[in-house]
Amino acid sequence: MVRRQWAWFVTVAIFGVGAMYAMLPTGHWRRGSAIMGFGLLVGAGLRWWLGDKAGLLVVRARWLDVIAMLVMGVGITVLAFWVPAARVVTVP
Questions:
Q1: What is the dihedral of CA 70, 71, 76, 81, to 10 degrees?
Q2: What's the DSSP call for residue 88?
Q3: Segment 21-44, tens digit of pLDDT
């Protein structure tokens, strides 16, 4: 049973690495968000490629799962690079 969940684990692991990277105090939220979006895109690809053998990635119909993860993955990635970087204000 655990072996069948590898696709879910890969997706969650990539997303989790992105979330941890985004929470670093050095301000790498943009890269972390891009990694999270990439994780969702990997999950969409695995769901499409594996079909009904994708374990916990199977929630609804294949096309609906893939479209939902694609929309979220692309949305997070686009927003990660669309939001302007914070300005550093120096006080003289």
A1: 90
A2: P
A3: 999 887 788 999 999 999 999 999
Residue 55: CB atoms within 10 A of its CB come to 19
Within 1-92, strands assigned E span none
Lowest model confidence (mean pLDDT) among 12-16, 26-30, 83-87: 83-87
Q: What is the pTM of this model?
A: 0.86
Nearest to 66, CA basis, from 80, 46, 87: 46
Tokens of residue 44, six digits: 């969409």
Distance, in Å, from the CA atom of 62 to the CA atom of 26, rounded to the nearest integer, reads 39
User: 10 Å Cβ neighbour count for 80?
Assistant: 20
